[in-house]
Write the structure tokens for this entry.
Amino acid sequence: MTVLAYLIPISLCLGMIGLGAFLWTLESNQYDDPQGNASRILRPDYDDHPKA
Amino acid sequence: MAAELRMSASACPACAAMPAAEALAARAAPKEARLILSLPTAHCAACMTTVEQGLMQLPGVHDARVNLTLKRVAVAADPAIGAETLIAAQDRLGYEAHELDAGMLRSTATDKAGRELLMRLGVAGFAMMNIMLLSVAVWSGAEGPTRALFQWVSAVIALPTVIFSAQPFFRQALRALRVWRLNMDVPISLAIILATVMSLYETAEGGGHTYFDAAVSLTFFLLAGRYLDYRTRAVARSAAEELAALEVPRATRVRDGAEEAVAIAELAAGDLVRVRPGGRMPVDGVVVEGTSELDRSLLTGESLPVWTGPDAIVSTGEVNLTGPLLVRVTAAGRDSSLHRIADLVAVAESGKNRYTSLADRAARIYAPGVHLLAAATFLFWLLRSAGDVHLALNIGVAVLIITCPCALGLAVPAVVTAASGRLFRRGLLIKDGTALERLAEVDTVVFDKTGTLTMGAPVPVNLADHAPQDVALAAALAAASSHPLARALAAGSAAEGLAALPVEDLREVPGFGIEGRWKGRRVRLGRAGWIGATPGARTATWLDAGDGIPREFAFADSLRPGAETVVADLRRQGKAVHLISGDTEGAVAALAARLGIENWTAGATPAEKADRVAELTAKGARVLMVGDGLNDTAALATAHVSISPASALDAARVASDIVLLGTDLGPIAGALVTARRATRRIHENFAISAAYNVIEVPLAMIGVATPLMAALAMSVSSITVSLNALRLR
């Protein structure tokens, strides 16, 4: 059962990382245009080089 | 290029906008102009690329980004670049664009409330998943120290989560309790707090049931309902704001002989303003110079233009048709007649007795019921166990948790979100949360005529009565003017395939008509008096082909697309259809006959329209009023529920509950069906959550409820309710 001493903190940490990522997306306005983003990803414009 | 784009637009009807709440985030405005354009026809990836690249190619434009959800494009450009340049560029690409008043949109640009709810939802979701993991171990038989460890870890996660995420419920509950009222948030808050506190106590004591998972998942599901509710309202609000931002933001002020464009807010009484043909009066005032005709249909419902000249009084919202006018401002902005009427409507609205929504009615029965049930259970067990407070409290709290309105909190918002999303895709914008429920009760529909059932634009009706040569001559003269009758005449003759005759020396005499020279003779097209004819009852313009004989070209208002179908559909649904107009009896009777409407009233003043609606209401009818003019606003505010087209005046849109975004009236009949189905779903959802309670509550009351049962009931009922709502899509 000592394995729990590792597993529980690890699982909590992973969850925290997920939560952190969610809060980051929230902070950087990534939910402003869900429909536009869904379409934007299909555009070939910046496939070869990133947007300057 | 343009044709190709339009084709792609029609080839992809399914990608119409989904409503979403995320408003534009406030971006810092550096030393460049930020312009926002509305793009009502943009809808897919190809549109986005075309619009962005087209704008970026313009010199002076730094950045352009389309927001497809809100159908807007934000442009950063040199301050010298005006919206007109951008709109013209969009027009060449085949997209309709309108400038939006950035100042008006900025007030709610940062969607703080929505983001806060989303953050609380995210935290609650994280905590729920982790606690569930630990709880599964406990349910499947963890014993002794392991169980104690898991319960403590759950407690450490649950406590901060509940304190942070459940705040919106606590705040609402406190607000209600302060005025000695009960709302849905009171039992919710009580259940969350009691579940947490009791579980903490049990954890410290060791051994008992803990409800941390219930407390947190309750918070999560209810926050989800709250967020949906918020999102629906935010979409409506941002779109309504957009409509308001479409109003003329600028006027041309004349000062010391020089013209300058200024914001209307900067105009003061005494200023001189130039209003060009086609422009809308930005202010109330007196004409100083120039003659013209004014279209007052939006204000009074009159379909005929009115002559105006020096010393005539003009009001905000009238459209100048033929000649430029110089107007001395008597009242602008907040003092103008338009705003005063909008204020009156606002007063009428606040006086309107408030409709109690289904959710409120449910809460009124539910909240006291739950408290009584929990209290009775507690007292029963206290007596039965001869004073075992711990046991009685445990069972009482279990009852509170089980009955907690998890599904009830989702029942209404999930359905309303699904229904308004469906209506939005069809071009109807729900401005008010209870509008759907009220729409479902409608049994009588009252239409306005000018601008609602008709387009408010004339079409020639008797071209065939004239010699082709006369028609061609009239069309040649008409082509020189932007007067609506002249434009209609030119378009009508072009449709007949007649080539315009060579007329020389064309000139427009503002307020009267057009004059020219043909085969050496003076020819005229214009007002009856100017041609030398006696005006008839019909809307008409007159032609003098140089022989002194006046020829009448009569016009009728063209029907709005979908007007015939919507009336037929409504009658098929068994609704009573009425037509109330401020126009003349002949015009109204003709339209009523054409559409098959038996109940019609002509020549009604704004007050009479409202009285007629009030009279129908007094007879027990639930009235849906559809109107667009300033003369309809009082009736719109009086009716049970109201719809106005997006082309309506600001005041009319403010007064109505639903805005029709497209030109087609057709969606109205479908909206009534959707509204009825939505209300049925809401009732079903109430029944579903009640059914779960009927099964679970007795078990909780006899003291055999376990945390596993609570968790199951909560999740399953929430999911069934959401799925039931999704059936609407």
